[in-house]
């Protein structure tokens, strides 16, 4: 005889012994990986989507404050967060044999690519034996009047100015930039405008970011690109790294750690460099013949943490000596 009380269908009940396992699975489910990708959007979108599929992970774009992984073409914010103690150290395996200059001393960030400050000239207007091989040579009057460069108050040009300030001292660095101005160098608003001036043949000589240099050379093949200061007495080329870092929060998410390792791995190093016309910064120092590796050049020895602290001061000083682009 039935008592009229509804009973659960046996097929819908969960055996008591399984409840703890289900609760444990729910508690240990890996959270989505939050990534702040302050890099070229087309590269970030395609690469992150591909890595998400490979790792069977959910990767979401986020602002830096809530991110697990930081990937930035301008390292200023990453360096400031490292100084504030907000980043976790990367493993030795992630870092590999990258040049020490391009890895944080405490392993809180590592470079995945780099843009260099290079010299470009038109050999039809400036003979090879008269072309500069050092950045400081550009202040010579016979070269300065043929030179075009972006105003050094933003981007990689500002980083380069701050690096020169650290190496030469504030007074000598300002003297160099005054020499460019007084010698008749043409100051323009940005790196794209420098490249346009080279392509149009308006100027015979430029100090420019390497990615724009390669683009200009593609459009005007006779242009010659010089990696400066490579001699025994040279200071080495200044490079601005694109970096990857793991936040303290991200270090607690296995998927975030896996993503940081993937971005720093060899295949991504080649792909990132190729997509951005950048120098390769690879874990084992190798690269395809078509790509230029930082291990093949002499780098300016710099302390990027020191440079980021100099940026504001150097910008103010350069504005004070009227190093701004003409309208």
Characterise the protein shown here.
- The structure is a single chain.
- With 327 residues, this protein is α/β, with parallel strands linked by helices.
- Helix content is 39%, strand content 16%.
- It contains twelve helices and eleven strands.
- The chain has helices at residues 19-28, 41-55, 76-83, 92-95, 141-144, 155-168, 170-182, 191-200, 210-219, 254-264, 266-276, 304-320; strands at 33-38, 59-61, 69-72, 87-88, 110-121, 147-150, 186-188, 205-209, 224-226, 239-247, 279-280.
- Strands 1, 2, 3, 4, 5, 6, 7, 8, 9, 10 and 11 form an eleven-stranded mixed beta sheet that branches.
- Strand 1 (33-38), helix 2 and strand 2 (59-61) form a beta-alpha-beta unit.
- The radius of gyration is 25 Å and the shape is globular.
- The model is unreliable at 1-14 and 21-28 (pLDDT under 50).
